[in-house]
Amino acid sequence: MIKYLGSKRRLVPVLERLARDSGATRVLDLFTGTTRVAQAFKRLGLEVCAVDTARYAEVFARCYVATDARAVDPDELAAAVGHLDGLTGRPGYVTETFCTKSRYFQPFNGARIDAIRQAIEDDFAASPLYPLLLTSLIEAADRVDSTTGLQMAYVKSWAARSFNRLTLRPPELLAGPGRAVRGDACELAAGLGSFDLAYLDPPYNQHRYFTNYHVWETLVAWDSPEHYGVACKRVDARDPATKSLFNSRRTMPAALATVVTDVDCELLVLSYNDESWMTVDELEALCGRFDDVVTLGFDSARYIGARIGIHNPAGEKVGTVSHLANREYLVVAGPARRVRRATAGLAAAACHS
Q1: Is 222 in the same domain as 78?
Q2: What is the pLDDT of residue 307?
Q3: Is 0.85 topped by the overall pTM?
């Protein structure tokens, strides 16, 4: 699993228990990201639909959610991964853009990424293995990058892991049915179908995933885009079409209200935190169409950037980080009996608002 802003790693056990206790069988993960939560639901034996706007998120969803492990020959997958892993590096766009003009990867790993990515396109574009191999490459690249997990910048000196050789591993696939959909939540929510449980984890602030993970976007698109700035971001990051309503304080509340209204589910679980633009009272008010609403709160460490601190362009630490922890919320809405059934076992682990 790649390093990711907004990862729900710490909340996964809570979400697993909530889904299991609710009795859900068909679930929706509408802002799936790396599919960490969607994978957790699928491991429970649930049928999952994973949705996101990002290209890399769609690849992960096709690999871990839409692919049924029982339909994949593990020997064929291992052979393909082994073949790609054995290729000789060949410098190309990644090496030039993300190793020389910027410093996301060591050049020897950049050349390996270039060679492997082109081979995936040439040899596997029409194969069911395509999203699996792309996932393997992105995860391998993440293990040897030189960032704190965001691609708006890279660390001043090479990270220790960046000296390791990029090595592919077969993804750990999950058995069972699933669906991967790429698109905007506001446009898709009403037409995705009916679900027992819908999990919503929308962006919380102005930071855009399109720019935070532009390297993965380019690695999937494989389109050698023009770029700008020290971070070599894709030039289409300046295009309004790549900007989300959820990244604006002015437009986010209405966008979230649209999704909450349109999604067809019996139980809705909305994830948010105390650093975001809406209060708990406002979030609960959005869920007014449901019979009952319960909000659970959990203490959580902030993202690693807060622990690293604030630095000036020269790399000198300046200022003071105000806090290192925040509060994560799960707003659970639906029929009263089902809400109480889903949340009763979590009372000891959370503080109700």
Answers
A1: yes
A2: 47
A3: yes
